[in-house]
Design goal:
heterotrimer; A mainly alpha (about 500); B mainly alpha (about 140); C mainly alpha (about 150); A: about 500 residues; mainly alpha; two-stranded antiparallel sheet; about 75% helix; B: about 140 residues; 5 helices; elongated
Chain lengths: ~500, ~140, ~150
Amino acid sequence: MSAQALHTARTLSDHLPVLIIIIPFLAAPLTVLIGSRRLAWPIAFGAALSSFVISVLLLLRVLDSGVISYAIGGWLPPIGIEYRIDAANAFVLLLVSAIGTIVLPYTIQSIKSEIPERHHTLFYTMYLLCFTGLLGVVVTGDAFNVFVFLEVSSLSTYVLVAMGAQTDKRALTAAYDYLVMGTTGATFFVIGIGFIYAATGTLNMADIALYIQVHGTNRTLETAFAFIMVGMGLKAAVYPLHLWLPNAYTYAPSAVTSFIAGTATKVAIYVLLRFMFTIFQPDFLFEMHAVRWVMMPLAILAMFAASLIAVFQSDFKRMLAYSSIAQIGYILLGIGLLSTTGLTAAIVHLFNHGITKAALFMGVGALVLRSGSSFYAKIEGMGKVMPFTSFAIVIAGLSLIGVPGTAGFISKWVLVQAAIEQGYWPLALAIVGSSLLAIIYVWRVIETLYMKQPADGWVKQEAPLTMLVPLWIMAGATVWFGIDTELTMTAARTAADGLLHGFMAGGQ
Amino acid sequence: MPEIEYILGHLNYWLFTVLMMTGLYIVVAKGNLIKKIVGLNLFQSAVFMFYISLGKITGGTAPIFPLDMRIDPATVYTNPLPHVLILTGIVVGIATTSLGLALIVRIREEYNTIEEDEILGIEKELVAQENRTLGDAMGGRA
Amino acid sequence: MHHHLILRVVTKILVAPIILFALYVQFHGDFSPGGGFQAGVLMAVAFILYGIVFGLETVQAVMPAWLAHKMMAAGVMIYAGTGVVSLLLGYNFLDYGSFSPHHPSHGQHWGIFSVEFGVLITVTGVMVSIYYAFAARRPAISNEEW
């Protein structure tokens, strides 16, 4: 049997694609098995850190020598499950593992005040499972495997969101709503996979792509495409399907929000990208229409409607949640342009927005630790009480607007370029216009933090170092990637090229 | 009549569609949180049945090798792959259901109700209270 | 539930056969319908049935809640550990062939056995834990009222 041909000795570096999943996946039950509150964090951090190192190695290797394929169980694809890594995966892996690792030190102090102590061990178990699931979605090259990992990450996310119930009982209903909508989305996705399987008889992504290239499309595949778009759209909080997001982000514990805001929706968008460009190639006419007449208008609507709602919020955390929906609009707009530059912009923005939002939510968490609430009325004048935290928030806020010198500027710049390249002047204006709204809502925060007087009897009281250092690493990263665009732009351009022209080319 | 043949020939798809829409309708229309979970379950089960019916091959038998490993090439086997996938799907479904029910138990302990409109009322009250004490919310929740 | 004599007697008789049947399903899983998932649920049913009839304290004397929790984690460790062992032996993750390089189909046998054992433990643990989690909540109406 040719599928058994892989019985050869292999070195450790060949196993990197699976190790990135296995280490956190083994660490998760280990925390339960040991059951010690003190050991849970070191285990989690060790696992996340090794995943991060592996993701860096993988990215370097992919940029250097092309697609990596790994056959689980020695069963060669398309029969077995394949882990397949090209530049797009590797880049998203880097984002997820980096945010997952950097948020972990932050959790120590943050969850002490927000989650009951008896849940601390399980918090890290869930965190690791979520981390594993997100990485798994990205790394796998098997369509059904995507669903499995997606549900691993989603189920643990629901639990993590519900852990905010100590501070506010609305976390429970937020988690419940998220559960119902997330499961509906995932089930839609499974229906789509079912149709694909019915039409092509395979679940391996590269194999499906090959089938569609050779045999063309038919109505079953179009239905599959529609189901997958809606399902993943729910998970990615694409504008009219975003209703779970504001409550989930607002009432989840701060550490959880900073982790999932930077990763969960981004991974869902990655799946969208993978299905749109690798599996159903863009010259698939139906998809062109879907992208141009459904996705783009919704993206623009998201950019304005969600930004406008964000402007009128009185809660910092909720404002950021709405701004996330708007930023997802930018990413979709980049995808909708269907050009290499547009796709590059989408992927860069996925990364840059991930780190920006993670930094901002960490900042909010630090404020909440001292003030007890993220309402503007409660954090007035915190610029004086917590100067370092506030300054990091300002830097990340500038990146959210897209001020030159920050990461947010790079991605918006590329996006504007992509729009102009195709002669869509109004789109470029829309991007700038929506950024103006971002200025307003970020300005409201700066005004609250710096231009108001803190509550009576304030003393200068910074956040603890375990929170401040991760926050500043993230805020620093937004500046770093705003000036040194070498890594992000190269990776994103390679990824976009790979997505648009030939996933099939490299490999094996 | 080709139409009737068409309808009967795709009977599994019709049934699966009806079941699926029933489930989805319950999720959307019912206010009781437990009923929503029931609807979600129905919705998922419909998809599982769809997968299982995909694996059916007319005249096919269970895809198990005989103990003496003498395989008759004329035997037609059903496709086991969708079944295996659905085994995973069912496990995910169980996890989702139990997590949903656990959340409902906690919601009932905190809100003292599992009716959606009552919960929304309580939450609206909470938001109004926050707005009174913590200043202006020009937008509210959307 | 002291008055349900028949229930109590039947349960006592049934628990052992249920566990036996679970083991049957488990060990026949590699060449007939069955396997860890089904066996795990059957195994859990034995404990849950016992718990429903004789009360939570009685069943938790046999299977304490902490044990069920550790079982969930241990099963996953066994499953993933099997993969890691094959990885350390120089093969791909979960390549069961590695357990018996000269006769891969024997290796398959060992591999699937160990993986299914992990699944059995996890599923039993999960099912029992779910039951405990719901049953341990204070009921809204007491036992006497209905």
